[in-house]
Amino acid sequence: MKQVSKKISWEITKKIILPIVIFIGVVLLYIYYTLILAPKFSLQLPQNSKKYLGTILVISITFIIQRIIEGALCWYKENIASKTTTRLDDELIPFLRRLAKTAIWVIALLIILPFYGVNISALITALGVGSLAIALAAQDTIANIISGFMIMVDKPFRPDDKIKLPSGELVKVLDIGVRRSKFLSEDKAIIIVPNLELSKSKIVNYTYGEER
User: CA-to-CA distance for 145 and 139, rounded, in angstroms?
Assistant: First the structure.
């Protein structure tokens, strides 16, 4: 357990060294200006400079959070996903990485915009409506992805298992994908079935029976 924790910590540390250095540099520069330069010369930080400083700080913190998530996902891919029989988690990790990156930077943008006098209430409303529209348009895709994840967790079948599909064909499991799974039929045809259909239907697994 300690070895696993050390590996995770090292992966994350490698990713966040640069953004942490930038963040610390900005903070130290601000402290030096506030405590040393400003009292000596009776200087005040211009309002525009405060905006830019706040922007740099938010970007630095966002960069650190992004690198932490990437480090954790990178560790999972190299140490966990590579050892599993299914390719579902291998395919899901890049999707999660893009999703997390997009969400983090959108939140950062919403924090930065008020520094420049932008009212983000309307923007948040528009983003909410847009997200709802996208979710409705892609509900089948999202349902298939969630179903694929549940198949990976519940393991009603595994690659190389012999099963009977809901449609009645006897097949061999080739691959469990993010949205669809592939099977090889007795007449050597490739059958591709959406994961949602598999998760809702009865699956007969002959390999499990033989193992018992």
Answer: 10
Domains of the chain, by residue range, sit at 2-118, 149-211
Query: In the predicted model, is pLDDT for residue 55 greater than 90?
Result: no
Structure tokens given for 42: 């009776």
Strands (E), the chain: 162-164, 170-176, 180-185, 190-194, 204-205
Give, in words, the CATH class of 149-211: mainly beta
Give the single-character DSSP code of 113: G
Question: Residue 143: exposed, middle, or buried by beta-carbon count in 10 A (0-12, 13-18, 19+)?
Answer: middle
The tens digit of pLDDT for each residue in 151-167 reads 877 888 888 889 988 88
Which residues, in sequence order, are CB contacts of 113 under 8 Å at separation 6+? Answer: 120, 123
Q: Is the pLDDT of residue 183 over 90?
A: yes
Q: Strand 170-176's sheet: what is its strand order?
A: 190-194, 180-185, 170-176, 162-164, 204-205
Contact yes or no for 176/86 (Cβ under 8 A): yes
The Cα–Cα gap between 12 and 9 comes to 5
Given phi > 0 = left and psi -120 to 50 = alpha, else beta, which region is 146?
Answer: alpha
Residue type, 157: F
The predicted-structure confidence for 5-53, as pLDDT tens digits, reads as follows 555 566 566 666 777 777 777 777 777 767 776 666 555 556 566 777 7
pTM of the model: 0.57
